[in-house]
What we know:
It contains 15 helices and 14 strands. Strand 9, helix 9 and strand 10 (228-231) form a beta-alpha-beta unit. It has helices at 12-16, 51-54, 75-80, 93-109, 127-138, 148-151, 162-165, 191-196, 214-221, 242-247, 260-277, 310-320, 323-337, 340-345, 366-374; strands at 2-6, 21-25, 40-43, 62-65, 84-86, 119-123, 142-146, 170-173, 202-205, 228-231, 250-251, 296-297, 357-360, 378-381. The protein is α/β, with parallel strands linked by helices. It starts with a strand and ends with a strand. It binds 1,4-dihydronicotinamide adenine dinucleotide and the ligand O=C(O)C(=O)[C@H](O)COP(=O)(O)O. Residues 8, 44-46, 67-69, 92, 254, 257-258 line the site of ligand LXYGBJRG.
Amino acid sequence: MKLYFEDTIPRGAEYFSTLGEAVAFNWQDVGADDLVNADYLAVRSTTKVDEALLHKASSLRYVATATAGTNHLDTAYLAQHNIKWNSAGGSNAAAVAEYVISALLTAHEQEKLDLSRITVGVVGAGYVGTALAHYLQALNIAYLLCDPPLENTDDPRHFVNMDRILECEVITLHVPFIQDGEFATVNLMSEQRLEALQGHQLLINACRGEVIDEPALIARLHKPNPPSVVLDVYYNEPNISSTLLEKIWLATPHIAGHSVEGKLRGTQLVYEQFCDQMDKFPQLAMEDFLDTPEPVDFTPEDPSVEALSWAELRQLLISIYDIQDDDRFFRQAMAKSNQFAAIRKSYRVRREYAAYTLRLSGMVSNGIIRQLTGLGFTLEML
Length: 382
Ligand SMILES: NC(=O)C1=CN([C@@H]2O[C@H](COP(=O)(O)OP(=O)(O)OC[C@H]3O[C@@H](n4cnc5c(N)ncnc54)[C@H](O)[C@@H]3O)[C@@H](O)[C@H]2O)C=CC1
Ligand SMILES: O=C(O)C(=O)[C@H](O)COP(=O)(O)O
């Protein structure tokens, strides 16, 4: 059995060599001739899986992407050729949610908004939108969900339409890139919707660049009273617009999902899908490859109150993930090299909240305990 994998898949060699002959390929120059003997193919979002890549892969039976998004797979072509496929939905949901929380805490600190008074409009209530909603709930930040496809199912949650979302102080996008059909998301943030946004609003896009009409966004940002904008994704990556970069508040190089756990969970899910296809029991678990960070001492200013202050929450959560670090590094690196792809592929080590144990001393209120466990921390009471 020959398993070919994109070389940016963390621990790909360790995982896939337990199932057969594992062959790494370079995502930048892989071509049809490289995959002639592949039975299984594992990619991340930077390998475009289409006829051009697969037309010589006559023994290929299964393609898996270790990412949540699937728009780099030509699924119609795969179906036509009886090649099964799957993705790693949910693998990096916590990472993206923590990215959004970091942006919100930073906006609060810079007095762009007041987290006690705003409503966050979450567009797309799948793995990422749901993970974000759990964090917002733990932080007592009001939110609304918009997800017309889910609203048509028996999902018991309350959903609102896009018009209501556009009234929120924060609009954060977590939908797949879908080009056509009833629920197409291409240019979901259309010129008309962008024109309606005002200076007190924050627009966050950590799903796919094509979900915002980017020329219309650039035009809006050149007019009076523009919204603040946080972007992780862009039109035409890796050749992104430098004009846009200059005009947005926070910019990162498509790394919202790149926590250590987010990427490794993607590999684990693909490995388990391959095992399932081969009728093998998975022998490896992602914990085999992860170290445990040292416990962190955490003493609330007033342990008897029911909720931590924004300043305390910010101090704790920003010490784990600070989006401003990524913004600064990205802008400097782009000014130096303009190598978007290389910058994102050499992303730093970033752990998720759930990797950490907090050591709390003394009696702490149930409200604080609920907040911290709701964010995913393990608590150790001293
Ligand atoms: N920047 C990054 O590093 C990452 C980006 N992503 C992107 O975020 C997307 C969402 O990720 P997941 O939550 O894991 O996917 P998911 O498939 O679990 O959830 C997407 C949700 O969007 C909803 N949706 C579809 N069309 C819609 C529309 N027109 N309006 C409102 N909602 C709509 C779906 O019903 C679904 O519930 C991925 O497809 C991927 O493109 C995901 C992870 C990391
Ligand atoms: O999971 C997704 O969808 C993403 O956008 C990934 O975070 C993209 O990561 P890479 O494929 O670029 O490593």
